[in-house]
Amino acid sequence: MILLLAALIFYSKLGSTTMPLIIHFEADKGVDFLGGRLEVFGILFSGLIMILINLFLVDFLYHRERFLSHIFSFANLLVAILILIAIAVIINVN
Fold first, then answer.
1. Which one, out of 21, 25, 31, 55, has a CA that is 20 to 30 A from the CA of 40?
2. How far, in Å, CA of 7 to CA of 31, rounded?
3. Phi/psi of residue 35, each to 5°?
């Protein structure tokens, strides 16, 4: 749900831009990675893959080790929030 929110926010703010986007920069060196919309959606897609793997592990481990499945569930939330923050930073920089 949080990844969907991040994708919708990104598409609404920068969905129609054709110029390169600043994906990563350092304060002392400046911009060191430019990319397009496809790279940003790649970030979202890789986050989705990580969450799907974690959900599979949660389902697999729930009946054996519930504590570990709760840790994986929390990791899903943490990954989604970190990706939302990364997308927000990319939007604000551009």
1. 55
2. 23
3. -160, 175
